[in-house]
Amino acid sequence: MQTIPPPAPGAVVAALPVSPYTVGISREFMAKSAAELARDIVAGLDHASSLAAAYGLTAAQWEVLKVWPAFRKQLETAVTELSGPMGMAERIKRKALMALDQYGIVDAATIAGDPKVGAATRLDAIGTLMAAGGIGAKSQQPGGSAGAGPLFVINLPGATQIAVGAPERPVIEVSKND
Predict the structure, then answer these.
(1) Final residue of a domain: which of 82, 98, 113?
(2) Rounded to the nearest 10 degrees, how much is the dihedral formed by the CA atoms of 25, 28, 29, 35?
(3) Could you give the number of structural domains in the chain?
(4) What is the DSSP letter of 28?
(5) Cα–Cα distance list, 172 to 16, 169, 175, 178 (Å)
(6) Phi/psi of residue 38, nearest 5 degrees
(7) What integer pLDDT is reported at residue 3 of this predicted model?
(8) C-alpha distances in angstroms, 147 versus 115, 139, 144, 165, 168?
(9) 7 in a structural domain
(10) In terms of domains, do 61 and 32 share one?
(11) pLDDT at residue 175 greater than cutoff 60
(12) What's the domain range around 116?
C-alpha cells in the first residue's frame, strides 16, 4: 500500500493559507471523489500525483489537497479500511478495474472492430464490452425491455445473422409419443 508521508517529526508546519476551494477544487470533488482518490492512493494503483491527475487535478491543486487536513483524514480512513485481509478484496477490485479501464476496454474494442479476427472472437470481445458496461440481456432489470428483442444484430457473410442480447427461448422437446 502507498501513502503520502506525514510531515517529519519536529518539522514546523505552517498554517494552511490556501484551501482546496481557492485553487479550483469543487465541493462536489471534495464530497464524492476525494475519498475515492485517497482509497486509490492507499491501494497503490499508481503514484499519488498520477492518480490525482487522472482524477482531473492540476499539479497546483494536488499540492494543496495532499496537505489539507480533511484529505489527510481520508487517507488515514482508507489505510484502516484497506489494510488486512478484509481490505485485500477491495484493493484487488480497484486494481482490476483500473487495468480494465486502461487496457481491457481498448483491447476488447480493437478486437471487436477488427475484420481479420474470427466472428466468435469478435462476439466474445463485444460480450466483454457489454458486461463491462453493464448492458445486455442479463443486466436488464425487471420491468425493463427484456424480451423485447436483441440488443443488436451482426450481419455476417453468407446472409448469416447473429443476435446479441436476444432473450433466451425455452427449449421444448417433442417426442413421437406426444
Answers:
(1) 82
(2) 140
(3) 2
(4) H
(5) 73, 9, 10, 12
(6) -60, -45
(7) 64
(8) 30, 12, 9, 10, 8
(9) no
(10) yes
(11) no
(12) 86-138+147-164
**34 and 52 in contact (C-beta within 8 Å)?**
no
- Residue in the structure block whose three cell numbers are 510531515: 7
Which of the four pLDDT bands, split at 50, 70 and 90, describes residue 91?
A: confident
Give whole-number Cα distances, 131 to 53, 105, 110, in Å.
Answer: 27, 11, 16
Which amino acid does the sequence have at 18? V
In angstroms, how far is CA 93 from the centroid of its own chain?
A: 9
In a domain, 8, yes or no: no
Please state the pTM of the whole predicted model.
0.52
Q: Do the beta carbons of residue 138 and residue 130 sit within 8 Å?
A: no
Sequence-distant (6+) residues with CB within 8 A of 61 are 20, 23, 24, 25, 52
Amino acid at 48: A
Which residue, 66, 82, 98, sits at the end of a domain?
Answer: 82
H/E element, 161: strand 160-164
The answer to whether the CB of 41 falls within 8 A of the CB of 76 is no
Pair 95, 156 in one domain:
yes
